[in-house]
């Protein structure tokens, strides 16, 4: 299921994900600069978080509080092995009923179960992106 969206209309992409996902564990794939964090920022805001989302590149995980519970945002770009994710307690997060938004999930694929939603973002132009739910 795909959608082309303009970066100034991120709400379309967020609604597409919310309408079609079967999991609260979203795996965001896309090249550097494709807009993964930008889309996650809009997603977190749409779910009612009080603070704006930012990239957890160095902390590995950010937690955002919403009226319906926490959202966990992971960025595994800088890890070198699944052991690093295990050391930070990824299994406890993955077992949580909260939303889990994961950038660079290919770094921890061996730790993920089948109950996930892959979100692929491709750059079509400077302002257009193609979002594909797999």
Automatic annotation (TrEMBL):
Keyword tags: ATP-binding, Cytoplasm, Magnesium, Metal-binding, Nucleotide-binding, tRNA processing
Main subcellular location: cytoplasm
Family matches, as InterPro entries: P-loop_NTPase, T6A_TsaE
Localization of this protein: Cytoplasm
Family that this chain belongs to: Belongs to the TsaE family.
PANTHER family listed in its UniProt record: TRNA THREONYLCARBAMOYLADENOSINE BIOSYNTHESIS PROTEIN TSAE
Protein name, as recorded: tRNA threonylcarbamoyladenosine biosynthesis protein TsaE
Originating organism: Autumnicola patrickiae
């Amino acid at each position: 299921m795909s959608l082309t969206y303009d970066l100034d209309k991120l709400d379309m992409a967020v609604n597409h994900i919310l309408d079609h996902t079967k999991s609260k564990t979203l795996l965001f794939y896309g090249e550097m600069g494709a807009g993964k964090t930008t889309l996650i920022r809009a997603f977190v805001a749409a779910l009612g978080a009080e603070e704006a989302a930012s990239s957890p590149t160095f902390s590995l995980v950010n937690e955002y509080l919403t009226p319906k519970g926490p959202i966990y945002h992971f960025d595994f770009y800088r890890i070198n092995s699944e052991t690093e994710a295990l050391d930070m307690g990824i299994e406890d997060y993955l077992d949580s009923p909260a939303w889990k938004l994961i950038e660079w999930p290919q770094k921890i694929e061996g730790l993920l179960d089948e109950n996930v939603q892959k979100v692929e973002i491709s750059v079509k132009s400077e302002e257009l992106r193609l979002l594909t739910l797999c």
